[in-house]
Amino acid sequence: MAGQEVPCGSLPDQLKKFAEALARAAGYSTSSEYIRYLLRHDQKRKAQEELETKLLGGLASGASKEMTSDDWNAY
After folding, report:
1. What is the pTM of this model?
2. Does residue 25 contact residue 10 with C-beta atoms inside 8 Å?
3. What is the pLDDT of residues 23-58, one digit of tens each?
4. Considering the domain boundaries, does residue 31 fall inside one?
5. Is residue 1 part of a domain?
6. Are 36 and 6 in contact (CB under 8 A)?
7. Which of 50, 69, 47 is nearest to 58 (CA)?
8. H or E element at residue 55
9. Which of 1, 31, 34, 5 is nearest to 17 (CA)?
10. Buried b or exposed e, range 11-21, using 16+ CB within 10 angstroms
11. 69 lies in some domain
């Protein structure tokens, strides 16, 4: 997917100018690069949230028990 443009052209002019200003302020050469960064950052944040939810679910599931050879062989 490298090199594909984010469709900033479909944004209203006011939002497009805002995105371009934010991109420049953050050190990106184009608003597309900045928007890709934001999307990747949000994707990573959501993955972290999902992991934390699963870990908390595991902690709340009760006391753990040591797996036996039979438990491992069942998989």
Report:
1. 0.66
2. no
3. 999 999 999 999 999 999 999 999 999 999 999 999
4. yes
5. no
6. yes
7. 50
8. helix 31-60
9. 31
10. beeeeeeebbe
11. no
